[in-house]
Design a protein that fits this description.
It contains ten helices and ten strands. The protein is of the alpha/beta class. It has one domain: TIM Barrel (Alpha-Beta Barrel). The strands form two sheets. Strands 1-2-3-6-7-8-9-10 form an eight-stranded parallel beta barrel, surrounded by five helices. The longest helix has 21 residues.
Length: 305
């Protein structure tokens, strides 16, 4: 059996398999999802110390890649953790960042991250101090590269000026095309990698949530503005027009949505979440859009949002 073609454009984000905001996730499904991603050619995985109350995503990733660890790039994040009563808090103190990075590596069973990122700035700790702790871990050989997530341009620049910055994670999808525009432009100028999240906006841009869909109790998605009122209606207008275009071009709606993100200037790769094998099998096949298809998708998006 031949090996799959490596896919560097799509990164499997492991937050959904943590089972905190995504309901009904089993460890069996989580493990099979990661293995399916590997079979589909995905070589990059995004995890975090706080993905799961007990490090579930780290452990599942470690189990899935146990015999082939050297073949994959792992993006790790520290700076968020859970309290004993399951409240997520920011903690950018150097001693915490270093300890949590070491714990995450042990859970996964690897010696080095490809990229270690500050998960989010801690308002109680100057970002330069947190940045120096992340950089110290690279000097110790625990990560090859460093980066930061959930920042505006000002905080990115403070991090960059303190220790340099190899990669940033920020939100971007076709319903929120301006969400990180200025940050992405700055990263492009700095030749800093950009990994986008909310690429499918919590599954909405997969095209499988109907206008009439009622979310289960405990599902966090109704709290996001894009799932409410006119924004939700506008999203469905986009999806209604994307459906026949996707069919015509032999793609799914999700593949168009991911391809749109991958076609934006400055974007290195798109994070996509999944907690079932069939989900990642579909999204792993996404590729950047050609010029004509991008123009058609842009027309639909900008007409309806």
């Amino acid at each position: 059996m031949s090996s799959p073609t490596p896919n560097r454009h799509v990164v499997l984000g492991l937050w959904p398999i943590a089972g905190i905001t995504t309901l009904g996730v089993t460890e069996s499904d989580a493990l099979q999802t990661i293995r399916c991603a590997i079979d589909a050619g995905i070589t990059r995985f995004d995890t975090a110390f706080a993905y799961g109350y007990d490090g579930r995503s780290d452990r599942m990733l470690g189990d899935a890649i146990a015999s082939r660890r050297d073949e994959f790039d792992v993006i790790g994040k520290v700076g968020q953790r859970w309290t004993s009563d399951h409240q997520r808090v920011l903690d950018g103190r150097p001693e915490t960042l270093i300890a949590d990075a070491e714990t995450s590596l042990r859970r996964i069973g690897i010696e080095q991250f490809d990229t270690l990122m500050l998960h989010a700035p801690d308002p109680k700790v100057p970002i330069q101090i947190s940045a120096n702790a992340i950089a110290e871990l690279t000097r110790r050989g625990l990560s090859r590269r460093i980066g930061v997530c959930n920042v505006d341009v000002e905080h990115y620049q403070r991090f960059r000026d303190a220790v340099g910055c190899d990669a940033v994670q920020c939100p971007l999808n076709m319903l929120q095309s301006d969400a990180s525009a200025s940050l992405i432009r700055q990263c492009e100028q700095d030749r800093c990698d950009v990994f986008t999240f909310w690429t499918l906006m919590k599954g909405l841009l997969a095209g499988k949530i109907s206008r009439e869909h009622t979310f289960a109790d405990g599902d966090s998605r109704p709290g996001y503005a894009v799932f409410q009122g006119q924004q939700r209606e506008n999203a469905h207008k986009v999806l209604d027009e994307l459906a026949p275009l996707a069919c015509k071009r032999g793609r799914t709606i999700a593949q168009l949505a991911i391809g749109w993100v991958l076609s934006q200037p400055g974007v290195t790769a798109a994070l996509v979440g999944a907690h079932k094998p069939e989900q990642i099998a579909e999204t792993a096949a996404a590729t950047p859009l050609d010029e004509d298809l991008l123009s058609e998708v842009d027309s639909i998006v900008y007409r309806n949002t």
